[in-house]
Amino acid sequence: MLPELGHFALILALLLAGLQAFFGIAGAHLRRDRWLAAVAPAVAGQFVMVATAIACLVTAFVSHDFSVRYVAENSNSALPLFYRVTALWGAHEGSLLLWIFLLAAWTLAVAFGAARLPARFSARVLGVLGVVSFGFLLFTLATSNPFLRLIPAAPDGRDLNPILQDPALAIHPPILYTGYVGFAVAFAFACAAMLEGRLDQAWARWTRPWTTSAWAFLTVGIALGSWWAYYELGWGGFWFWDPVENASFMPWLVGTALVHSLAVTDKRGLFKSWTLLLAILAFSLSLLGTFLVRSGVLVSVHSFAADPTRGIFILAFLIIMIGGSLTLYAWRAPLLRSSAGFELGARESFLLFNNILLVIAAAIVFGGTMAPLIADALGLPTLSVGLPYFNPTFLMPILPLLALLPVGLHANWKKGRLAEKQRAILATLAVAFVLALAVSFGVFAQGRILTLVGLTLGPWIILSSLLDPVDRWRRKLSLSRSVLGMTIAHVGVGLFVIGITVVQSFTQEHDVALARGETAAVGGYEFRFEGVRSMEGPNYDGVRGSVVVTRRAAPLGTLYPEKRRYWVQGTVTTEAAIQMNRGTNLLIALGDDLGAGRWSVRIQVRPLISLVWLAALIMAIGGALAGSDRRYHLPARSAAEAVADTAAAKEGAG
Amino acid sequence: MTPRRRRLTLVLGVLAGVAIAGGLTLRALRANVMFFFDPSQVVAGEAPHDQRFRLGGMVEKGSVRRAPGSLEVNFVVTDFRHELPVRYTGVLPDLFREGQGVVAHGRIGTNGVFVADEVLAKHDEKYMPPEVARALKKEAATAAGSARTGS
What we know:
Number of helices of chain B: 3
Mean pLDDT of chain B: 78
Number of domains of chain A: 3
CATH architecture of the largest domain in chain B: Beta Barrel
Largest interface: A-B, 46 and 36 residues
Number of strands of chain B: 7
Helix content of chain A: 55-70%
Strand order of the largest sheet of chain B: 2-4-5-7-6
Distance between the termini of chain A: 35 Å
Structural class of chain A: alpha+beta
Order of helices and strands of chain A: HHHHHHHHHHHHHEHHHHEEEEEEEEEEHH
Number of strands of chain A: 11
Oligomer: heterodimer
Strand content of chain A: 5-15%
Low-confidence stretches of chain A: 299-305, 642-654
Shape of chain A: flat
Radius of gyration of chain B: 23 Å
Structural class of chain B: alpha+beta
Order of helices and strands of chain B: HEHEEEEEEH
CATH class of the largest domain in chain B: Mainly Beta
Largest sheet of chain A: 6 strands, antiparallel
């Protein structure tokens, strides 16, 4: 019964989303206040319905209801409880349901926050979110219903894909999706401003906290995915330019540009139409990312079988959402002129360059990700684009972007008076360069140009970001959360650059064949192979190797890499063993039994790779802090307005 | 400069920047993409001799051989019409198996052996790289077609 209840709840949610969209947009347009009063209840009702649907599906998973096709395909009676719950988003249908649930949750939060906004504007925001939700619900119900029954019921399930049975990956999709969906809020604010034909600094102030928190979630989501790919897929590094990674990275790049452009719109009332365009772009790329990844169009780890009806529906939905919002933009954006000017050395110019470079970077990633698809559609020879394209090309906009950051931080709004700060900026640069030389030659005894550039840029960004806040702190002046958050995020960027530079420059990796008792030396560490032993887990069996690690004869411990075979699908997975030693990650993965008592073993020594993920987390913390600044808290609306609204609501209800 | 001239200069500058970036990107794309070939195309001499490319097909059953205790592994990739021997030194991916689809990156050696520096077998039992699936389907279709003309 429960699956039918879930299905029914989804249908009700679809209807409520339709009402929310209609009453919100049409009500605001026709100035019918009674219609507006129906929007918030529709939002709440939709949230309850979607939550009910999720609860029904989770119950089906937990209680092993293999008469539900989606459960039978993604769970098994031997699957531990935790993964039975997270199996919900283990495949296409459930991921969509999760997306819809998170959208409903964000919308509910917006409805609460927007109670303090002008009634018509908040109705438009909620209405646009209703349109998005309606599209997703329709797509789910029409092509990807997770509640379909399997008759007769399967005796047991086909199990969750073993590589998804992992704690980091269990929480990666919800966090990533929270980021994607958060950009839907920025998008809705942009559409509402265009429908209204008015965009002032207050608008930017309302939009900023939502955008910044969405950005922070997306940052954590991407970092988790990268971390998971490192230790579970055994890909080795932190980034592979895999289409799926790119799909989440493009909205991040544009979202980063949006966060910065919103700052200009907020403080100076400039870049208005550009900000709108970025909000549309960030959400469009989020949509593209969600669909590309889950629809099987892209060839990757996450891809599921492609279904042509889904493809057509997705295409239609993308065209309606992106085309519709761009049409609205072309029609309305000219109304939203900015009038003020600024000088070349002013902060506005730096943020303009920041935006241009980030969008170029996104375009480069987009080109590389879509080229194979486009070539395929045009019937050209099958091609693939990888590291040799992305790495050098991506650096072209990113290096100038990073070099402008420590300078631009000290620029004033409106007037270009950088000369006053010239000495401080050059001093930090000099300190950073000396540090780079010391680390490069002193610690690692080598120095390539890119290594030196990266090791200079990282500390320079950190030092330069800290100059003003430390100065204020010394003079016992207060620091607002937004400035503090920005500083933390920029320090995160600096640490990130340092981490990436060191990993890229000083990683050592080898595949070796080892017999019991043999030793391999990699990157100044010795690895002694102690053979393998068979082992068994709750739903798998396999072998566990042991490798003793020493550095200059000093023991550092034993690592236990595993090779597992999951019973249900017969899938073999490699569980790499990782140990951190003074900031350096030692990774050992077991390969195959080579015969003659030897095993192939993959050994990687990656200094500071953890710093890359840690830095991403620091950036996200900075974003969260900046988003929670008090200046974004809206004052309660005047009593008269509130009374008028309640009266309207009562009338509407009666 | 009047504000108008200044804005025009700025816009032109940005446009020029974008154009240069776009041009460089296209160039990088052209120089750095890898093309895909199946064994039949390689045997017919369509694959480049001086460039890395992707080879895809099925790992022929019973073809995987190792020198005992060494990392070197030899196997044959087939599209059921032509075969190509492949040599690889290193750890094979978890899903590498005889009779399964595989994509190898590398180049043709002097003796006609494909020397792979990377072997990919994707993370799904039922997964077959789409290029491989298409190549195999194409081969099946031509085989059926020639059988028909033959009869």
